[in-house]
Amino acid sequence: MWHWRGRNALELQGEDRNSPDSALRLAKQYTFMSLHIKRRAMLPVVARVLMALAAIFLINLPTAKAQSGTIELSELPPPPPSVAKLLNQADVRFCYGWQEKPSSMTMPNGRRLGGLTVYKMNYDFRTQSRLQRRGNRQQMVTTIRLGSGGLRCDHIVWFRERPSRETFWTNRLVLHELDHVRISSDPRHEKRFRELLLENAVLVQQSDGTVSTELGQSRQSAKDRVEAIFRQITALVDIRYKELDRLTDHGMMKLPRGKFPGLSGDDSVR
């Protein structure tokens, strides 16, 4: 019996453009998508950076560069209880200024970014493989299990200019970015990820070659299967991000009551 562990991470850096319904097309147009393969020890670690479909607040600001830095929670007034819970659950870091900005891109029309949310989802999984004989045929049976860490998500929320300390937790831009954080950190994503993985946990392949060859193939097949399931989850997040920006015109308008339960326009988060 053979055991193997795999990992994957997807980092999405959001830049909502003037056309909220064409984010994927814009991502391709500006070549925001890149794939990097890294190897550490004997385990393949895949990091795919997809820059599209996240939070941005568009405002016309002076060209002068602002100071940069991290906004520590200890520097701010205590957040509302629901926000404090979110910050802990979603692993959020606030920063501001051009030195801290995850991307230096501007709008095609020259308008500058006022805010940006970057979220990173990652997971690890394990496989257990064994050979079994069925009549005259030999099969490699591989079982996939999600690692103990589950599906994890952390966030960086960037502001072009630092929001006022006194009104930080009521600032419209801050609230809009936190709504994006709520979407990507929703625990239902992990629940669905686990359900789909459980439904597709067993791989059976005919074994005609050497054990090492069959193990390599089974590991690759397992990695591909888990990544495909992972992509279903992130695709759902992308859709909800885009819908939030459509409803609020990228944070310029208040979220209509009842349109997006659980976000800042809903009484349950106050």
UniProtKB/TrEMBL annotation:
It comes from the Bacteria. It comes from Novipirellula artificiosorum. Keywords: Membrane, Transmembrane, Transmembrane helix. The chain crosses the membrane at residues 41-61. This is DUF922 domain-containing protein.
